[in-house]
Amino acid sequence: MFEKIFALLAGDEEPPELIDDELWLATLQSVPLLTALPPEKQNRLRVLAERFIQEKQFCGGDGLEPDAAMATRIATLACLPVLELGMDWLAPIREIVIYPAPFLVRHDAPDEFGVVHEGYEALSGEAWGHGTLVLAWPDVLESGWMDEGHNVVIHEIAHVLDNGNGAFNGFPPLHRSMDIGEWTREFTAAYESLNRQLDQGAVTLIDPYAATAPTEFFAVTSEYHFERPDILARAFPQVAKLMEEFYSGGR
Ligand SMILES: [Zn+2]
């Protein structure tokens, strides 16, 4: 589908830019998180986003037909977490499926008594282990506003990074300069603290969804790291510091 939108010329001719200047500027200007980046980072991000568009397949669900603007917005937000890590981290992703609205998935969850409740849950995003990223377009449009700290694209990319060592457990492959013991200690302490606060009925700085599983804690705090690092630093300063180390490539 995207071969048509981003047509590459065959033969000796120079390939056209995958994201033309007009579309790139419109993308930057429509997402405050991208507008706020220094030009040097914007330029490097553009190169990664073009690679992302070239390497991944974009498809639509429920009759949605992805256009170049959609692909560019998603690709740019998807590459932001790996700007200092490199595209290899996104190698597991093969396709991105965009839905026009939050999509329903079958959800069979055991409750605290071990009874499995079957039903459907409306989701804004999902990262599947075998390389598919599913996103609801309205949630993509709500990402990148630097207000409440939500960003569905960064959330799903964080799951992909988390799964880099074969498990969704909030423990991505760490850089050599990082201390595995410190990561485990600080993330476990913060996760347990958030759960305790919620058990006590407290209103938490961080979205309570982070308390549902360690992988969700990593994904949600990744959203805050990019969108609202100030809130993350207030809620869990040690986690904020480790996130900074992780996403800056451990240097
Ligand atoms: Zn999640």
From TrEMBL:
GO molecular function, one term: aminopeptidase activity
UniProt xrefs under InterPro entries: MetalloPept_cat_dom_sf, MtfA_fam, MtfA_N
Entry GO CC: cytosol
Superkingdom, natural source: Bacteria
Stated name of the protein: Zinc-dependent peptidase
